[in-house]
Amino acid sequence: MFESVSAAPPDAILGLTDAYKADPNPEKINLGVGVYQDEQGRTPVLGTVRAAAARLAADLASKSYLPITGSADYAEAVQKLMFGDQDEIPRSRRAVTAHTPGGTGALRVTADFIRQNFADATVWMSQPTWANHPAVFAAAGVPTKTYPYFDKASNGLNFEEMIAALKKIPEGDVVLLHGCCHNPTGIDPTAEQWAEIAKTLRTVGALPLIDFAYQGFGEGVKEDTAGLQAFCRPGEELIVCSSFSKNFGLYRERVGAATFVAADQDSMLRVASQVKRAIRSNYSNPPSHGAELVVTILQDAKLRKQWEGEVAEMRDRINGMRTLLVEKLAEHGAPGDFEFIKRQKGMFSFSGLTPDQVERLKNDYAIYIVGSGRINVAGITPSNVDRLAKSMADVLKG
Ligand code: PMP
């Protein structure tokens, strides 16, 4: 039977890593896949993760199955982390949190839940968005559409057109928003804009779905919840898909969460039963190690403080590289104003490079960037920034 199977195209982003690995050029630079790297280009295991792993290894309690939605300790820790001092939702017990395999797992569980309970709902996503967003919802059979987001002229948010589009969304549809550090643009709404987005969704009767994959990479662990907070009002519903791949450096442990906030506890219990059903037929129950690491760190005041320091260190390094790249681009006479790179938040920068320029950087300079022009700023280091800026300046000059 397999002779009739045609080859699928390689994943646009992960395929780029394969091409990078195969490139013999010793000066090659990988700015593709969204993984944090330190100044030496390594993706380190955080000190707090090492400490938590040692504790867990000394006290291996059981490897029996977890409940379908994971452990209660994890759910509590995740809710505390994202709702912070605004604890009306945890106190009212109107949210259910399921531990999922990564943020991608959270999105897929959400997609299955939407398909099974709101068969007519469309999920609206920003133009552009993370490439896997439409793919995950399509795989679950959920239709998707886009709303305007990026304004090429200003390298900023096209807020007017975004709001105008959101105002036309039919009642009962779902609107996917990036909680902070928008991937791929690095452009987030301001506090006032978040308030207006929340008000608009409330008015049209659309369900907010917040993808929260970079908490702590924008302004700070607490500060980055500002967008999410705009949707946290008594009696209001929302879904949050969290990922701890980046902020805990737990990429391969696959640790994330899907949190469904209902209007009241009664609705939450019914929603929880449907979430369990979606998970049971998908992966049955979650892996435990990554979640145990997260719980150990968040429950211990000293480790928690140390972890916030580690997140700040990653954030500060990325922001330092933004500033340095802008300086170096000017030094090498790159045509245009690149100040916008400093304003972008999180791991990514939408550089404005065209697909042709991206191709030239790969073929002529061994610099690997996603076709959309998205640069993983965390892949820039003090030792490669000069070559990167000079090469970018070269291709920008034509
Ligand atoms: N959402 C966004 C916006 C992301 O960028 C990513 C990771 N690239 C994810 C979700 C999924 O993260 P995970 O690796 O935890 O599945």
Structure summarized in a few sentences:
By secondary structure, this protein is an alpha/beta fold. It contains 15 helices and 13 strands.
What report would you give on this structure?
The chain is of the alpha/beta class. Helix content is 44%, strand content 13%. The chain has 2 domains: 11-44 and 309-397, Alpha-Beta Complex (Aspartate Aminotransferase, domain 1); 65-299, Aspartate Aminotransferase, domain 2 (3-Layer(aba) Sandwich). The radius of gyration is 21 Å and the shape is globular. It starts with 13 loop residues before the first helix and ends with a helix. Helix 2 (47-58) packs antiparallel against helix 12 and helix 11 packs across helix 12. The model has no long low-confidence stretch (mean pLDDT 96). It has helices at 14-22, 47-58, 72-83, 88-92, 102-117, 132-139, 159-166, 191-204, 226-229, 265-280, 289-299, 301-331, 340-343, 355-365, 385-397; strands at 29-30, 95-100, 123-127, 144-148, 150-151, 156-157, 174-178, 207-212, 238-243, 256-261, 348-350, 367-368, 374-376. It has a 7-stranded mixed beta sheet with strand order 2-10-9-8-7-3-4, sandwiched between helices. The site of 4'-deoxy-4'-aminopyridoxal-5'-phosphate has 12 residues, from helix 5.
